Amino acid sequence: VVDIGYIGTYGRHQMWRRNLNPVPTGANFDPKNADPTNPRVPLPSDFLRPTRGYSDIHLLETASSSNYHSLQVSVDRRFARNLQFGANWTWSKALDFNDSDTGNVSVLTPIRVWDYGLASFDRTHVVKLNWIWDLPRTSWRSLPARLVLNDWQVSGIASFLSGAPGTVSFSTTTAVDITGTATQGARIVVTGNPVLPKSERTFDRNFRTEVFQLPAVGTFGNAAKTILRGPGVNNWDLSMFKNFPIRERANVQFRWELYNVFNHTQFMSFDTSARFDPRTGAQV
């Protein structure tokens, strides 16, 4: 049985959280906001907000949206001639502004540019295989041989998933204020495609680090919500069953179950944090 379908969903009027009292962009750089007792530093953030004396004022509003599109294919073979198997493939894309009802969205940059992109749970490809195989029985003359060698069953599940989307963060060797506001930090500057071909990836190098730069003071950087994908999943689970028939409606079963049977390491993520020397702008 082969089943092919398109599955799509739209979410409208979903929740997000927006700050009504942000520190304006560059407020820390404005000379009029300097602390009179120490002109080299700005006043505390709560003195620089539109509603002074208050910190963040968050509003939960039904203004978010999301969408999901997928091609879903399944192939199933019912149990016949001692064999049953199935295969499922989902090719999909999930986009949103925020993954939870309390996710914050930008108030100092265009919301769609800053927050809209791949959802954290997006997986481009999800492939699942399953099978059950009753090993052939043989009419052994020896009763012990029949008891030991017949009535075996092998089953398993294999999973192959694309990695989770992610981004590249950064830090500096010495503290530096880039955006001039405590409300929103900057994102890293991307100058090229960071994705490496699979043939060039190694344990120590999963993407191009040379395409990232420290954002200039007074800017927000240009990185998108997500720019990389983490490691995928390649997992095999296997089971072997031995049935010992007692009577028509009863039997004893021996089970041997192995999870991640090939002992393949399943990495969840890799290091995506760059570190810059703000004096030179070089990565260290």
Could you explain how this protein is built, in words?
The chain is mainly beta and 284 residues long. The chain contains two helices and 16 strands. It has helices at 111-115, 143-149, and strands spanning 2-19, 34-35, 38-42, 58-80, 83-96, 117-118, 125-134, 152-161, 165-166, 169-172, 189-190, 212-213, 228-229, 233-247, 250-258, 273-276. Strands 1, 4, 5, 6, 7, 8, 14 and 15 form an eight-stranded antiparallel sheet that branches. It is elongated, with a radius of gyration of 28 Å. The two termini are 56 Å apart.
Summarize the structure.
4% of the residues lie in helices and 44% in strands.
> Overall pLDDT, averaged?
94
* Broad structural category: mainly beta
- Range of helix content: under 10%
The tally of helices reads: 2
How many DSSP E strands?
16
- Principal-axes geometry comes out as elongated
Instruction: Please provide the ordered H/E string of secondary-structure elements.
Output: EEEEEHEEHEEEEEEEEE
* Sheet with most strands: 8 strands, antiparallel
Radius of gyration equals 28 Å
As residue ranges, the low-confidence spans are none
Work out the strand percent: 35-45%
* C-alpha end-to-end distance: 56 Å
Secondary structure: elements and pairs:
Blueprint: E1 2-19, E2 34-35, E3 38-42, E4 58-80, E5 83-96, H1 111-115, E6 117-118, E7 125-134, H2 143-149, E8 152-161, E9 165-166, E10 169-172, E11 189-190, E12 212-213, E13 228-229, E14 233-247, E15 250-258, E16 273-276
Parallel strand pairs: 10-16
Antiparallel strand pairs: 1-4, 2-3, 4-5, 5-6, 5-7, 7-8, 8-14, 9-13, 11-12, 14-15
